[in-house]
Amino acid sequence: MRRLVAAALCAASALGAGCGEGRPANEFRVLAGSELKDLEPYFTEIRKKTGVSLAMTYSGTLAGIDRLNAGEQFDAVWFSHAKYLVLSDAGRNRIKSQERIALSPVVLGVKQSKAKAFGWVDNPNVTWADIAAKVKAGQFTSR
Asked: Domain ends where: 94, 117, 132?
């Protein structure tokens, strides 16, 4: 959590969050990978600690890069990986700085029967919060 707050504060202060016309001075607009929706419960605390409100626009990585290449403006972009962004001249030229804030090389293997019982088969919306809830309920263990 501290790292997330620090990242938001550093990015906001470095980029002059909310400098766009017609926006609150403390709003920081971020084009983010959809997997970051799980962080929303922390946004209130981030705002309290930093005075910065995160205004997230969620997108898949490739669709988000298309939005950037089409000229949409954001204070920051937060995707799980920048490899597709740096492959295009338009994307590479827009990058002002990059910072790795996490590395999560975690792959979760789930038996087909268990994934089916949880409704996870062919479900692109399963999150780490969903997995944690099943663990907390005792429905999902390491055995």
From this structure: 94
Tell me how far apart the alpha carbons of residues 80 and 61 are, in angstroms, rounded to a whole number: 8
Strands 76-78 and 27-33: parallel
pLDDT tens digits for range 47-105? 999 999 999 999 988 898 888 888 898 998 888 777 777 787 667 777 777 777 666 66
In this prediction the pTM is: 0.56
CA–CA separation, 21 and 25 (whole Å):
9
Which helix (H) or strand (E) segment is 23 a member of? none
CA–CA distances in Å: residue 63 to residues 2, 115, 122: 30, 28, 20
Q: How many residues appear in the chain?
A: 143
Q: How many domains does the chain have?
A: 2
Phi, psi of 73 (to 5 degrees): -110, 135
- At position 52, the amino acid (one-letter code) is V
Return d(Cα 83, Cα 89) in angstroms, integer. Answer: 12
Domain-located, residue 100: no
Q: What is the rounded distance in angstroms from the CA atom of residue 6 to the CA atom of residue 49?
A: 10
Range of the domain at 113: 106-143
Contact by Cβ (8 Å): 30, 68: no
